[in-house]
Specification:
- By secondary structure, this protein is α+β, with helices and mostly antiparallel strands.
- Among the domains are: 221 residues, 3-Layer(bba) Sandwich (FAD/NAD(P)-binding domain), CATH 3.50.50.60; 97 residues, Glutaredoxin (3-Layer(aba) Sandwich), CATH 3.40.30.
- 30% of the residues lie in helices and 29% in strands.
- The protein contains 14 helices and 27 strands.
- The strands form five sheets. The chain has a nine-stranded mixed beta sheet with strand order 19-16-12-15-14-13-5-6-20, with helices on both faces. Strands 1, 2, 8, 9, 10, 11, 17 and 18 form an eight-stranded mixed beta sheet that branches.
- Strand 5 and strand 6 form a beta hairpin.
- The radius of gyration is 24 Å and the shape is globular.
- Flavin-adenine dinucleotide binds next to helix 1, strand 2, strand 9 and helix 9.
- The site of flavin-adenine dinucleotide has 30 residues, from helix 1, strand 2, strand 9 and helix 9.
């Protein structure tokens, strides 16, 4: 049976839509289906990192998304006696990736923007109201057994399949791919509220983690008048009753009354820490919530899925273009599994601070955090919690810059304006070098773009971000992957030659 498509994607949520966009805009013939015809109309994910805005920039939708996003306020952690014990903030400008590092956003319109972008791509066929019921793979491709809204069965065939079909993934279930349980399982109520002027006047001016042993809770300031509470349920409380209007107002009564706000969504669900044991079975890949779920304390739910597909799609496109093979495809699961497990461990540690139910241990926690601060509580940028890539297609661990996100400075243009670097260079493999020195490229057949910063003919950065980064890491060149992670940095031609040789060994 011939392959109709290069890549099929099941699920047109944020992970599936970003995957389809990134593949479609480089001409990969892509099929995407979703059993629902509409974007889910309630907010679920609320936080967005600058790394994700950079992917949206690559898709050409960053400006449209910015209209639905606002800077994430600091998150203050209050201990047993209501005292400040910890504070997450954002790094001060100039921002390293060209966007506010932590944002809050409204998910339904952002998903609609992503979908519109995909629908405009001639290389992508979007099939809505269509449910995947079966998958079968052979040496050449994957066959999808589908059923449309009228109940009719049909099939589609592609060389590869990405399962972006959410937490209860059909594909994962059909293939019997297991999730490792990283031991976090707590019942919480999530309430989204639109607050009026009277209500807003009663609420804190920053986001808050109430590390209260009687009732741990999170308060997040969303865009406009959107406010979210995540409230831990106590032993014996019925999650279904908590998710009724009356139940939600009862739990919100510490902050608001029904005169202050309108309920938008309330849902009880279990905060889990689950990660796929295998991320790939032959030609089929898991991504997004299908591959992992984590407690929401750092707002990483959707970010993780976008990271997955930003990682996978350039590798699939390269393999389909004959520029890589198994080494490249195998690196997807190795990189993302380690990254998700590392980050989930850090999120769990934050959860352990918030969720301590024993009053004596909670007081000991407060004393420990205040002692660690060694004085007034210090600002801790949220983004510092994110790990680098520790394994896979990256020259680690010999240098701390390897596996990190490469900065994106603003560049001063000839007309005196400014542009973000990726807009000028595109998002393929890049060798970014400082100054005028010569760099040997004979060792590579990579489609590598050389980007010069400074010197006689180089680009001129507006805020010195790259200059500072290269100085901190004592290097003069960085080999940057298409997903903007640093493969490796080099101080001179010898180091670069070694990186290019290593890459050549790992790509096939
Ligand atoms: C009820 C709920 C509440 C959430 N609340 C929060 C929150 O408070 N904070 C937070 O950070 N994150 C939250 N999340 C998670 C967040 O929404 C996801 O991380 C984010 O949406 C990324 O998901 P995704 O694209 O991987 O999957 P999803 O957004 O779940 O998209 C999966 C898509 O696959 C489709 N699909 C599933 N099975 C099939 C099939 N067999 N055939 C065809 N299509 C199929 C679905 O219709 C859906 O559109 C929540 C998720 C859910 C489900």
């Amino acid at each position: 049976m011939a392959e109709d498509y290069d890549v099929a994607i099941v699920g047109f949520g944020p992970s599936g839509a970003v995957a389809a966009g990134l593949l479609g805009q480089v001409g990969v013939r892509t099929y995407v289906c979703d059993r629902s015809t509409e974007v889910y109309d309630k907010p679920r994910a609320i936080a967005l990192d600058h790394e994700i805005m950079r992917v949206f920039q690559q898709l050409g939708v960053a400006e449209a998304v910015e209209r639905w996003a606002e800077p994430f306020t600091p998150s203050e952690y209050y201990g047993v006696d209501g005292q400040l014990i910890k504070r997450f903030t954002t790094v001060a400008p100039p921002f390293p990736l060209g966007y506010t590092p932590s944002l809050v956003f409204t998910q339904p319109p952002v998903e609609a923007i992503l979908r519109q972008r995909v629908l405009a791509l001639p290389a992508v066929d979007v099939d809505l109201g269509v449910t995947l019921e079966g998958v079968d793979q052979d040496a050449d491709g994957v066959t999808l057994a589908l059923r449309d809204g009228a109940g009719a069965a049909r099939a589609a065939r592609a060389r590869y399949l990405i399962a972006c079909d959410g937490a209860s993934s059909t594909v994962r279930g059909l293939l019997g791919m297991e999730l490792d349980d990283l031991a976090f399982d707590e019942p919480w109520l999530v309430v989204d509220v639109r607050v009026n002027e009277r209500g807003l006047a009663k609420l804190p001016a920053v986001s808050v983690q109430y590390c209260d042993p009687d009732r741990p809770a999170t308060y997040v300031i969303g865009p406009g008048n959107h406010r979210r509470w995540e409230i831990s349920l106590n032993a014996g409380e019925d999650p279904r009753e908590a998710a009724t209007e009356a139940g939600a107002w009862r739990l919100l009564s510490r902050w608001l009354t029904p005169d202050d706000a309108t309920l938008w969504r309330q849902a009880s669900y279990r905060f889990h820490a689950l990660v796929a044991r295998e991320w790939r079975r032959g030609r089929i890949f898991l991504a997004g919530d299908a591959a992992h779920q984590q407690p929401p304390f750092l707002g990483q739910g959707m970010c993780q899925g976008v990271r997955d597909v930003a990682n996978l799609t350039w590798k699939l496109a390269a393999v389909l273009a004959g520029q890589g093979g198994e080494g490249l495809l195998g690196s997807y699961g190795a990189e993302r599994s380690r990254h998700v497990r590392d980050l989930t461990g850090r999120i769990k540690a934050i959860g352990a601070v918030i969720c301590e139910r024993d009053r004596d241990l909670a007081r000991a926690r407060d004393r420990r955090l205040l002692a660690e601060a060694g004085g007034p509580v210090r600002d801790e940028p949220r983004q510092n919690v994110l790990p680098r890539l520790e394994e896979g297609l990256v020259a680690v661990p010999d240098h701390p810059a390897n596996g990190t996100l490469f900065p994106q400075p603003w560049i001063v243009t000839a007309d005196g304006g400014r542009q973000r670097l990726d807009t000028l260079t595109g998002a393929g493999w890049r060798l970014v070098v400082m100054g005028d020195g010569a760099w040997p490229l004979a060792e590579t057949d990579l489609p590598l773009r050389v980007v010069r910063i400074g010197g006689r003919d180089g680009l001129s950065e507006a805020d010195g971000i790259l200059t500072a980064c290269f100085r901190t890491h004592d290097c003069a060149a960085a080999l940057v992957r298409p997903d903007h992670y640093v493969y490796g940095v080099a101080t001179g031609p010898q180091g670069l030659t070694a990186h290019l040789a290593a890459l050549r060994r790992h790509m096939p």
